[in-house]
Amino acid sequence: MKIWLTMQGKKIDTFRRWRNGMKEVGRIPRNYPGFRQSADLAEYIGVLLGDGNISKFPRTERILISGNLRHPGFIEHYAKLTETLFRKTPTIMKPRGGRHVRISLYQKEISRRLGIPTGSRRHLDLRIPDWIWRNSRYLIRLVKGLLEAEGSLSIHRPSYTYNFQFANRNQSLLASMARALMVLGFHPERRYNAVRLRKRAEVEKLRLLVQFREY
User: 90-123 burial, b for 16+ CB within 10 Å, e for fewer?
Assistant: First the structure.
């Protein structure tokens, strides 16, 4: 560490030779083009906007997706989707004594390629890409990603109570979810921190449409 800090102070890149060698053999990409538009990408953007995070560092960026241990299929599904999109195996982190598992991946220009800003997004104006709005199949997958991240489904048949809810603190994202559901033919209720469906037929229809908690 002391040697590395000394080299940093002298602005000497001690890993340049290794990094160039890895680029020659294809272990490190020479550039990072944008992703191809697809249903998988639309769902991935949804889960990231719902409860993911992109952090920026001096030489790279990191993506984090959190999942609950009660839903192991979530972790497996989005870890696989991460590997497919980035062509790199993510790290699965299980905090000791915690209920959540994190999918982590480091790579350059993640934010630019996904169109999702780094850092806290609570008060930002988050916009869904136009290419997703123009394709109903992509829109369904986006809604699935959002619901898998921040959705909850509650059904109490004896009292005929149905509630399919997307909860989030970002107002622009809540507006986009409400709009997406209306485009898909639903009639959502908008609350300050949530968008929800309360009619039995619509709850069942949306559950089947997005295959909620099915991986």
Answer: beeeeeeeeeebbbbbbbeebbebbebebeebee
